[in-house]
Each structure stands twice: as C-alpha cells, then as structure tokens.
Amino acid sequence: MGLQDPLLKVVPVYDRPWWRVTHALSFVTGGVTFTFGTYIYYLPASEFLSYLSAWLYIIGSVGFLYVDVQEFFTFTDNRWLRLNICMSMIGSALYIVGSYGFLPDVAAVDPETGIQGFIWGSFFIGVSQAWKLLRIHGDGGICGS
Known about the structure:
The chain has 5 helices and no strands. The protein has helices at residues 17-41, 47-74, 79-101, 104-109, 112-138. By secondary structure, it is an all-alpha fold.
C-alpha cells in the first residue's frame, strides 16, 4: 500500500446504507400511502375520510418527491439523466399540489386543483418513466453490457 492509496475505500453516496435506506423507505411510504389513500377515497364519503385520503396522498407525494430530489443531487455527472430525474421531480411536485387540492376545504373552492395536479403530475412522471425505459434499452437493457 503506497502513500497515494487511500486508507478507506471511497464508496459512492448511492451505495451508502443511509442513502439506500432513505431512498427505499421514501418509495415504500409513497406507494403504501397512495394505495391506502386511494382505497379510502372510494369509501362512502365522510369529511374525516376525505381529509385522511388527501393527507395520505400528500404524505405519499412528499415521499416520491424526496426520492426525486435525492437522485437529482446524487447523479450530477450526466446532464440528460438529471433532466430525466427533473421531469419526475416536477411530476411529484404537481402530485403534492394535486393532493393538496383534494383536501375538502380546497376542493370546495376549486375542485380542479386536485384533478389537474394529478393529471399533469402523471403526465410528467409518465414521460420521465418512458424516457427511462428508452435509456435502459439504449444502455443494453436491464442486464446490459
């Protein structure tokens, strides 16, 4: 071992346990709260369930946005990858707006906020995910070489 060799191996941030745990937990939180929020949304209406559903959507949207922001500030070398991640970030931010729009007090004033937030959020995320599939395919596929 020479003087130029580091004593500790440099581990990329995305391979560090804290990064992987927070990344995974945020995705799981987003998915689970969206699932329960949707289930509750379709139950017979009550003010409590309407608020609960909207807050579950808000929590899930924040979880998804956390993942996007985390990736945006982690993968900084590739401009096109960052733009792709930015599309997801915009979609997740619009999901937060849409989720806020499903709160009964907001929906009573402007019911389009929730609907349009989810439609446009889904559009941006859909474009981002389609782009991601094209990137994966261009790199030789999921198991690529």
